[in-house]
Design brief:
The protein has about 300 residues and is of the alpha+beta class. It is about 35% helix and about 25% strand. InterPro entries: DNA-bd_dom_put_sf, HTH_17, PBP_domain, SinI_DNA-bd.
Length: about 300
């Protein structure tokens, strides 16, 4: 079988046995030249061989890379988070400048850690702090210690319980999760919804060990809602939009603040300006609102900055 001439980001990650985020970081730093076919980033087999040879300290037997304008005409930027609003942000950034967006679907906490390490350019956060009742700022201030940054609102969205049609268990409040007849399905550690649940359990004096189903983890709102729809759990937590997609009932609890964070560096100033221009544009807000389930009244507002 002939060797492929190029690989996708996912294939490179599998071959090197690393995460997609690591491959994105190599692309961002220019260590793995990439080109785009439609919406897909690809890396040639020869460039992969050169990278591997370089890591081994060997001289590459592959011919020197030919200059490919499509590989150097853009700046790859890594956008971290799961909401489709981030895909829309990436599309608008690509229209208005020399950017090509790479998407990684990392949780809020892990995304902030990646930003701290310089592995991402734009990170989404929706982290509730029970001590202050505030979203995001307390976490960003602590995790980005020593870094200048800017945090801007992307949107707000309803967050609540997923329950089966008719809500047979009569679940309405956080305290109901502690009942012996209620089984939950949880999100993975580091996810914004997981942080929200843990903070609410603490505020309501509930121990995670007393919550049935607490140890069962899913990695997206849709998989949580699907587990509830299938009767594998009585309740999960997520967004209203996904409840409609999965065919479960939604019990609203609060409005979640969903922000994006960028490091404030000299190199990033044009990117920050581009992001602000997109978020404050009528076209972006109109398209985002049309997706349904988003409050754009604060979109583009600077929530916090340092440096």
């Amino acid at each position: 079988m002939p060797e492929p001439q190029s690989y996708t980001i996912e294939e490179i990650a599998s071959l090197l046995k690393v995460s997609k985020l690591t491959v994105y970081d190599l692309v961002k730093k220019g260590k793995l030249p990439a080109f785009r076919v439609g919406r897909q980033m690809r890396i040639t087999a020869d460039d992969l061989k050169r990278y591997i040879a370089g890591q081994k300290g060997e001289a590459s037997t592959v011919s020197p890379a030919v200059s490919r304008p499509t590989e150097t005409a853009f700046r790859p930027i890594i956008i971290s988070g799961q909401d489709m609003a981030l895909d829309l942000l990436g599309v608008h950034l690509e229209k208005g400048g020399p950017y090509q967006s790479l998407r990684t679907y990392t949780s809020s906490l892990n995304g902030l850690i990646a930003l701290y390490k310089g592995q991402c350019d734009i990170v989404s956060v929706h982290l509730f702090d029970g001590q202050t009742g505030e979203y995001n700022r307390p976490y960003v201030e602590k995790l980005l210690t020593g870094h200048a940054y800017i945090m801007v609102n992307l949107m707000r969205r309803p967050i609540g319980f997923y329950v089966q049609k008719g809500n047979p268990r009569g679940i309405q409040t956080w305290s109901d999760l502690g009942r012996s007849d209620v089984v939950i399905v949880n999100r993975e550690k580091g996810a914004g919804v997981r942080v929200l649940l843990d903070e609410q359990l603490r505020l309501h004096g509930l121990s995670p060990s007393a919550i049935r189903g607490y140890e069962r983890e899913e990695t997206s709102h849709l998989s949580v809602a699907s587990a509830v729809a299938a009767g594998l759990a009585d309740v999960g937590i997520g967004t209203e939009k996904v409840a409609r997609m999965a065919g479960v009932e939604f019990i609203p609890l609060m409005k979640e603040q969903y922000d994006v964070v960028m490091l404030r560096t000299r190199e990033n100033e044009p990117l920050i300006a581009a992001v602000l221009n997109v978020l404050r544009s009528d076209s972006f807000r109109t398209e985002l609102e049309a997706l349904g389930g988003y409050d754009v009244s604060q979109t583009g507002q600077i929530i916090a900055e340092r440096g």
